[in-house]
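It is worth pausing here to work through a concrete case rather than discussing structure prediction in the abstract. The textbook approach is simple: state the sequence, then state the predicted structure, then interpret. We follow exactly that order.
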Amino acid sequence: MSNYSILIIDDNEIDRYVLKRQLERTGLPLTIFEQPDGEDAIRLLSAYEANRAKYAGKFPPILLFLDINMPKLDGWGFLREFLLVRSQYDYSTSVVVLFTSSDRPEDRAQGEQFDFVQNYLVKGQYDTEQLKTLILAAA
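Step two, the predicted structure:
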């Protein structure tokens, strides 16, 4: 079984902790990276070659859980920046799951404008099996 690499981008430390624990409960072998905002996540992803060397076989992440409402660079700003990063580095296999407290249809629609956004999870309205399915689908 492969090791599945995940990046959680969320300014709320408790939300990151809860998601990380639920991901670990899937029973899948995971490497989980965490970033507190979109700006730090872009910085991590832009250091592509260095991180591929540092985390051999575990970078780039296949799945990015992205909060929408964050300081510095919010989820929408991250998606626009990530579009540019994807054109510079090989993130063709990395997909984004919007992971937010918003259940607004217009937020879902805005996320669907990016072909690499594969799903939309509302915090507290998902379970471990859904997370496992998302990981396996992204792999």
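Step three, interpretation. The CA atoms of residues 63 and 108 lie 18 Å apart. Residues 75-88 form the longest helix (14 residues).
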